Records
---
Amino acid sequence: MSRYDVIIIGAGPAGSTSALLLARQGFRVIVLEKAKFPRFHIGESILPQNFPLVQELGLEDALFKLPHLKKYGAEFGMGDDHNTTRFNFDSALIPGSNTFNVERALFDKMLMDQARSAGAEIREETSVKRIEKLTHGDCSVVIDGGETLSAKLILDASGHGTVVGRHLGIRKPVADTNLHKVAYLQHFDDVERLPGSEDGHPSIFMTSEGWFWVIGLNERKTSVGFVAHPDLIKQVGVPANRMLQWAIARCPVVRHRMRNAIGQSTNDVLADFSYTCKPIAGDGYFMVGDAGCFLDPIFSTGVTLAMKGAQQAARHTAALLKNQTTPATARREYIDFVEGSTRVFWRLIRNYYNHSFRELFLNGTGPHDVHRAVISILAGHVFPRPPFKLRWRLALFFFFMRLNQFIPLVPRRNRFSLLEQEPQELPQIMSAANVATA
């Protein structure tokens, strides 16, 4: 039986960040990753509050060697209105806009390679078949081929696989079924961007059925996705791998931005949005990033929450291995950090699908700097919890949202439904090979 200090399940941003930090401290760490990197993944837009951590990890130079776009803000609008609202992070109540969009296949591999260089053992194409023991100081797993590995602690960074969550039976969908979502996504070349320094703004276009993202990744490549409730595909009767095309054909703004786009006519699918595992830390384990909970990606929180949570998990793990804290204290502090920093995003996501929220949000201004406080939160100023000057303004924003449902505080905006639109297809979206021979 091979013995380690820590077994980390998953080599995404959460797993690799934890492995990098622990390996640098001399702990014997093994990372088990079921895929072969690089591999496709969504979550390509990074919050400004993640960049200081990239610098702290000493990864700035490695990051900037990757194709990427600098990101200074974001664009939001309705799917039928070309007059959108643009936010700059420097205009937030807590300014700061140094961040980026990057293709996750490249970014994740860079993180994994850095963890390996720091001394972590990385085994790709290796799945955890089962957890044998899960007790502080005595954990073991069985991997492909029947080999058993043991460690003092397990960090579950397995994303949607939630290996520990499924083992313990604690992975549950959120109770609010309105938050059950499916994403239909693909990469395209030559999608129209905003001009100048705004070309890295993630663009979010809203409909009654869900929302689109359009995120530039490098000079040519753009990530495009559509997020909706799983009932929509049953209603329209379209194959899941054609759902993105169905939605684009009915959305004037996205269709216009993609009028010269080149790419596949089919899309990938990601389901199981919005679930939680509780407790995310327990006897012998910490759950990190998407393994512990997954939020609707509307505000691009995934990578930042994963890496910031991984930093905390690594800190508590190191303290436990050095006998500098107790398991109960480490678990409590870790849970408080994760829940304190994600709670505000859960509230924003729940209200984002309220039309009154959208009207106030798209207005872009408000008394007492409420809009600037919202921008600060969307920039990631939530760790370990939002400062008071953001919390009270956000509470005021939600009060205005409720009042706006009855008394118009901002100009009314018409709802926009894809189901009411006549489709206009984009025949040039086809495989690159077909384009080359057309």
Note: The radius of gyration is 22 Å.
---
Amino acid sequence: MKKISLNSYTGVRLVVIAAVLSAFAYGGLISASVSRNPSPDEPKTSPTPKRHRQVARKYSQFEHNLKAHTLECGTCHKFPSDNWKKVRLEKEAFPDVTEYPKHESCLNCHKQQFFRGATPTICSICHTNRFPPRDSTRFPFPNPREVFDTSIRAKAHVSDFAVGFPHDKHIEIVSSKGRSSETFTNAAFIRPGPPAGEESCSVCHKTFKPQGESDDEYVTKPPAKLGEDFWLKKGTFKTMPIGHTTCFTCHSADTGILPAPNDCATCHKLKTPALPADFDAKIAASMGVEDKLTLDTWGRRESAGKFRHEWFSHAELSCSTCHDVAKLKTEDPMTRRVTVSACATCHATATSDDGGAMNFEVDSRKVNAGFQCVKCHVTFGKLEIPKSHLDAIAKAGEKK
């Protein structure tokens, strides 16, 4: 066995001690560095494991409604994006914001988050891989919607913005492509030929997934023993423009019509608290409904979730029977709500014997407090009967 000299042993021991001390010193420097430069959103004390998880979740998404993020849109989003000619077919392409902001927009405030650990959580906002130097692939950007909505990411995506579209400013403009001399009126029922302004509605709103002449009336296949239970039917909703393509037809650099395409904040408004909707995500999931437009529209249905636009008695009505189009502003949920007086036009009668569906539901609830009003509603039917419904029935009785 080879003997180790005292000098050699001492030398080895000193090297080991130096390495250990270096490790402690390095760890101390890192700790000191972190404590001297805390993120303004984090506590000054050492975070608990739970806090670590909260921070990880926080930096995994970008929230526009945070005070620090309420900047001019152009601060981060450059118009047009470098890839605007590639995301749409060449003949359909137009200057647009079609890509995430560049790193400089984030680094101004989040340098610490960018260099935290081997896989910074903040990178997952845009990148499919949390270590971009190895794989810089990004998630699809939410615009163009016609592309984004087909992606897996779109299923759980909820925008921070509502699009402000003032209908009163567009009714006559859109109608002018047809009969410009007409103005919008609140006619109750459709007359021979479309009522004034009615043709402007159909420019942007079509019956979504209509049943047409098909015998298949449901959006997804219902159970064999459905009976009278609810299952979403085709032709329930109407379409609406979902991206810039329709808007930029008129609002472009060529036409000069304001707001200009790069004036994002004119149309994109931070959402206000939404009104309760006659919608239950669990019910939609049980039906296998996955189409984003259906879920988004149904999730905003603030009145009767079962109202089907394609049903023949509804299809014969003017849009203005239910919608006060001239006052409708899409970013304001109160102006979107359909009042019960519109429903009462057909569904409230003097008595239940006269055939009013609203009367039957209300009378049934009076007899049985556990009765659920399911003729029109998906979830609202479990709630107390609103005074507006009782007033509508009383008003119908006065007309007898």
Note: The first helix runs from residue 6 to 36.
---
Amino acid sequence: MKKTSQPLILLLLLSNILLGQPFYVGADLSYTNEMEDCGVVFLDDNQPRDPFAIFADHGANLVRLRLWHTPAWYDTLHVGNRYSDFADVKRSIARVHAQGMQVLLDFHLSDSWADPGHQVVPAAWAAVVGNTPVLGDSVYQYVYGVLRELAEQDLWPEMVQLGNETNRGILQTQAANDGGWVLDWHRNATLFNRGLSAIRAAAADYQQQVKIGLHLAGPASVEWYVDQFTQHGVTDYNFIGISYYWAWHQPTTIAQTGDVISRLRQAHPNKEVLILETGYPWTLAWNDSAANIINDLSPAYSPASPEAQYQWLVDLSQEVRQSGGSGVLYWEPAWVSSPCRTPWGQGSHQEHAAFFDFNNNVLPTGGMAWLGADFGPTGVAQPGTGTTKLTLSYQPASQQVQVALTEPLPTGNWHAVLFNVDGKGVQDWRELPTDTAAFTLDLPTLPNGVYFFTLFEGQVVRGSAAVGVVR
């Protein structure tokens, strides 16, 4: 067969292919029950409302809930009341599901906060912390038991993460944790795999669907950690979760975070990537005696204001989505000031970065507005229903694509995105002509491969076609 010197152009009409899956936007609302029990009344437009309903109505579709094993330390703060234990989590799951949102259950695998600086074994397992097989069995039985009860009570979570910001070895003694960064990969992998297998077993036994994830802090180090997990046999999970805060992860920018997500999607195409935590202040003032934990501002989003908080979240979400990521969650936007205490002070350490003002009323131009914003199309192909018939003609010499429609586009919010086969948007045309049935669009220089041109009206796909370039 004669080899052509010109690109072979393959045009496929894909009117039934939708390049877009639901993009997760939401928040960790683990503090919400406690805030209400402490007397907080959440307001939306100055009207008292169920806080979970507020988030659902503003556009949230996923709520993250942390689970501590036995947070007995709460007993000295609120007599008789513990939060983020199993009973509290079940209460929250029911409230989230009642509002039509999904749940991401966050196993901290600790009695208290787990993060890059703290990965301390629950007191119930302290006696076996040095025996990895027995400790692994404890993890399995605990995780399976939690999920079994949730399934039996019709509280099954749609997503589960095993561990929270696990940048060091999990389930350490207090002494080992305080001794510095510890990562025995054989031990770590054994414990993770036991927990992951428990989630899979519970889902299979109770005929439930679930997405399973790992969670790491800081975009700059995530790729190394994911590679280490893979090399040590930890692979049975569906998504990679990342914490990204300017305050702790600067100078990594939003654009650089997008680059990390893009590389992760390319290196691990069967794994989704989400920002599981982010946060940004709307003010540097305070409303109680508890020290605020986020105080650094990005020069690009300064001074602090509700509008800066909103823009940080919109820009981050657009970058995540265009890089092939699947969602962004905010950390604790309902953790407002109250008479209650933490181990470090009275009130909230996050009221200045919540989605509510100091009177517990929704900030209309702040982060709550982000939940309903348009972040552009996602980069993951799913079945759908396109309605606008189109054909393409790719011009390699000029790096242009000619678009021919059956009829001119009606007036509306039309735009188009070109995706590569990894689901990353490589070109975004934010405005399209509505007075013609044929127009030409400039393309970037593209490597050989198949690309998907998708036509959107707002966030609704109206038509798609694919172009394959083989030299």
Note: Residues 1-20, 378-387 have pLDDT under 50 and may be disordered.
---
Amino acid sequence: MRIIIPPYVKPFLWSYDTDRLDDERDKKRIVTNVLNLGTKKATDWLFSVFKKEDIRNALMEPLRGEWNKKSLNLWSLIFNVHQK
């Protein structure tokens, strides 16, 4: 299903057509970009839309070359995820 991305989240998905993102197919992309680059308002939105388990899964198997190492470490600590 297509997900409605609010205007304050769109800048963190700048290279994607946000009107065509799908909440299942693009889940890992959305989680990665918002946690890696987003503001508190954007991350609050993310937490209200995606399940904790979906976010943990994106952290456990991060998209290669996409994460800022500090961001990945921070969110992994917050969500108690250990990198493989």
Note: Residues 10-78 form one domain.
